[in-house]
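Input structure tokens:
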């Protein structure tokens, strides 16, 4: 009689252990994804919706803030750059990020998630620092900021491209080539700017 009960007991224990391990792995995976999303934008914690957001919501929020900043930087670049190549680049940045922001807003609306409508205080300082420069100093500061910002953007969207949420992953995969194009162009301008500066 004891021989018949023992396997059933062991089976119940094994099932319980397996369930616990599965839950632990899922929790670890969720926390890892959340940490990965948050790592790319230290200013994400400036917004109140972050405290109860899921990894998907965190991406939506960070992408929205980043997109707004890029649009503003595009406008500033067109107004203040002294080089036509940077003015043209800034116009492309504004146009492409307005389009991406529109798509992001549609995804958020479908999910019932309210995107932030204002840039965080830290990001505003980012823009103020840019505005405080002029002439060649502005050109150099602007294009270097665009290189750095797009490294962060690409990293964020690469993580989102692996999301199990099909709407998020599809949007990220569609937007990544645009961000990579921006990064490559910014690098090219930055290198040419440095070469010209060294010749003088």
């Amino acid at each position: 009689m004891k021989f018949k009960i023992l396997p059933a007991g062991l089976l119940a224990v094994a099932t319980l252990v397996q369930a616990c391990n599965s839950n632990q792995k899922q929790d670890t995976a969720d926390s890892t994804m959340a940490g990965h999303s948050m790592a790319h934008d230290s200013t994400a914690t400036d917004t109140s919706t972050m405290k109860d957001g899921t990894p998907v919501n965190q991406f939506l929020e960070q992408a929205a803030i980043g997109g707004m900043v890029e649009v503003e930087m595009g406008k500033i670049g067109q107004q203040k750059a002294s080089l036509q190549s940077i003015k043209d680049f800034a116009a492309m940045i504004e146009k492409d990020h307005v389009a991406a922001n529109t798509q992001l807003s549609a995804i958020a609306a479908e999910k019932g998630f309210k995107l932030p409508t204002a840039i965080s205080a830290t990001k505003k300082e980012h823009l103020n620092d840019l505005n405080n420069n002029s002439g060649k100093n502005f050109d150099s500061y602007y294009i270097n900021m665009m290189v750095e910002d797009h490294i962060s953007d690409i990293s964020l969207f690469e993580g989102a491209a692996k999301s199990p949420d099909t709407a998020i992953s599809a949007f990220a995969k569609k937007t990544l080539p645009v961000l990579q194009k921006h990064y490559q162009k910014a690098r090219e301008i930055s290198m040419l700017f440095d070469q010209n500066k060294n010749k003088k």
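The first helix runs from residue 2 to 39. The chain is about 80% helix and 0% strand.
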